[in-house]
Amino acid sequence: MVADVAVAAITDVTLMKASQLGMRAIGAGLAVGLTGIASGIAEMAIGSAAVGATAENKDVFGLVLLLTVIPETIVIFGLVVALLLIF
Amino acid sequence: MLTPEKMSRLLIVASKDQLSPVVAELYRHNLFHIEDYVETGAEGYEGFKIGTPLSGASEASGDLVKVRSIENAFSIQSDDFEVKTRRNQSELQVTIERELPAIEREVDDLTGKRAKLDAKGKEYEQKIADITPFIGIPGDLDLYRGYQRFVVFAGYVVHEVSIPVPNEMYFAKGKAGNFIVVVAQTEHRQDVERVLQEAGFRAVTIPEEAGVPKERVDFYSGQITLIKKEIDEINQKLDAIKTKHADFLVACEEVLKVKVEQTEAPLRFATTNETFVAEGWVPSASVATIRETLEKATGGKIFVTELPVDLEHDSVPVEYNYPSFAKPAQMLMDVYSRPKYTELDPTLMVSIVFPIFFGLILGDVGYGLILLAMCLGLRKFMKGEEGTLLLKVLRNASISSIFFGLLYSEFLGFALPWSPFMFSRHLKIGAETGGHGPQIPELMILAIWIGLLHITLGRVMGMANHARQDHGAHRTKAILANAGWICVMWGILFVIWSMVPMPYMPDFTTLPTLVLTFNIASVIGAVMLVAGVLFIARDSALEIVELPTIISHVLSYTRIVAVGLSSVAIAMVINFIAIGMLIEPQLESITIVGVLFIVMGVVVFLIGHALNLALGILGGGLHSIRLHYVEFFTKFYKGGGKKYSPFGLNRRFTED
């Protein structure tokens, strides 16, 4: 009887640990995925404006390329959070 | 080293007959940045007028236009042109008079002929297009016109039609649609038109030709071939002229450019009836040389003096001043903005830190070697100044990439035979489940340390800039505000360190408690934080809103790890797919299908790594420079300096 309870408790603990691990993985995935979408939306507007500006004046290419990657910070924070969650 | 080259303001006054020797001397030395004279009636310049060009200006500029138009026809660009021999200027001037018109005539003739032939070719092509629909219809082309009692319709219809009046009709199905020719009596014209209209008739013009359509098309095709041959011949002739005269032309361009610039220089000076006044900037070190040569050239009939510089109002031209190894970074600076004369010039720091960041991100021996080879190989094809500088930036970055690759022990995503000297970035992907695994927290701490130091350096430079540029009470406030930002940042760190122990960072949690549960470090941190906020608010209260950027900017440096790790991950996945999944299983027993898989694996490997390298260069380069532009420069750098462009030219193809 006591042994049964102990076995059940151990299975519960392993189950809990496993589900915690799974939750972390889901959290990490969400962190990268959602921030990726956000970066994409932000870069969409900048990118199209950047292409327009480059078509008008080729000299601004370096500058607009830089402006285009500025929202990438969001996804990098997401990646950092994900890495911290997993490791 | 950290400031732009020191400049002096020179005033040159002489009588007008000294204009041409003075201009020639200034041009030869290539040091004098002319401040263009504008007729605004400024104090001391009342009654002065803009000068008139020296003699020979219009001829020279006319010739220059000719030379450039010929160069355009040949698509010669002097920037991309290798220097073979340097020609003597005076000899060249004589030959220009003699040879240039002849070359021009020849080239004009040939390009004119080519344009005519091109037009004719186009015309014939149009004719072929017009005749082609009629090929399917029996009957010569002259049968389609010249009737008084009949009317001819030719064109495309959507479907076949039957016409209720007497007529003769031909119908042909083709790729372009259903072609139809209807001949009817003139009095039935409207009936036919109505029926055709219902069938979606689109008329085509009947070509003004005679004979069998097929034969006409063949005839015109033959003509076009002949024309193409003639054009080829002309192109060959032009190529011959190009190879024969190209170096003459670029030399001509240079000589004429020199002449035009010299003869038009007085347009930038202030003049009276008898004298002229030139104002401009010279590097302080060269003032004596300029003064001496000018006095020598004019026999002392000149007045040269140094004017006081007003840093507040004068826009002093800026010339970089740094050790030669830092030169490539100038390109990265010019993309942002040239420093102002009174500002600290961060080019030196960029030249050192940029490659380090790049190497930390793309630390891979394989990618570094490929990039290095690419830079060295492309040197032959990129001749312009910006291109060479860019290649040098990338070359330095690739060397740093190789260096950090050795430290990280990475080669195209594989491990090198030693374990990493720095923190490992090897992920556990595919077969590589053993080993250390990535040391992400350690790498993050490293990145944050880099960020802290970089930002602190930026703020210290901000203090220096304010000390150099501002005056009075504002100066003190601005300097203290920058110190305040540093205090807040390190204050927050002290508080964190006294609460949580972290690897590779000072651990203050064990210090004795001072007040309540706070130990001495957290008290110091709190004091720094509050003092810092006060300093910032004293300069500008609005800046308080910006306080969160302290955290976000420092965390932003973690991109060094994040972008780098993503590149490592992609490389390892490519290796796993190509080798672990496609190639290795087939090697045990080779079959025909197995060979196919192996080839596929090789293709995946090559394309994958090419893509990852491109991403790595783009990511590594852009994120490194972004950390400079956004996180570093915003702390101290304004930019907007005027480029120092001295009056003169570095001759490449000619000499005096």
Would you kindly provide a written description of the structure presented here, covering whatever features stand out?
The complex is a heterodimer of chains A (87) and B (656). Chain A has 87 residues and is an all-alpha fold. Chain A has a single domain (2-86), classed as F1FO ATP Synthase (Up-down Bundle), CATH 1.20.20. Chain A is built from 3 helices and no strands. The longest helix of chain A has 55 residues, at 2-56. Chain A is rod-shaped. Chain A starts with a helix and ends with a helix. With 656 residues, chain B is α+β, with helices and mostly antiparallel strands. In chain B, helix 2 (57-74) packs antiparallel against helix 5 (213-264), helix 11 (440-469) crosses helix 14 and helix 12 runs antiparallel to helix 13 (520-539). The longest helix of chain B has 52 residues, at 213-264. The mean pLDDT of chain B is 88. The interface between A and B is medium-sized, with 15 and 23 residues.
Task: Please outline the helices and strands.
The complex is a heterodimer of chains A (87) and B (656).
Chain A lengths: L1 H55 L4 H9 L2 H15 L1
Helix pairs in contact in A: 1-2, 1-3
Chain B lengths: L6 E9 L3 H11 L3 E2 L14 E2 L6 H18 L12 E2 H43 L18 E8 L9 E7 L4 E8 L3 H10 L3 E2 L9 H52 L5 E2 L3 E9 L3 H12 L3 E6 L9 E2 L10 H8 L10 H15 L3 H14 L6 H24 L1 E2 L2 E2 L24 H30 L2 H28 L13 E3 L2 E2 H20 L9 H8 L2 H29 L4 H41 L9 E2 L10 E2 L1
Parallel strand pairs in B: 4-18, 12-17
Antiparallel strand pairs in B: 1-10, 1-11, 2-10, 3-9, 5-7, 5-8, 6-7, 9-10, 13-14, 15-16
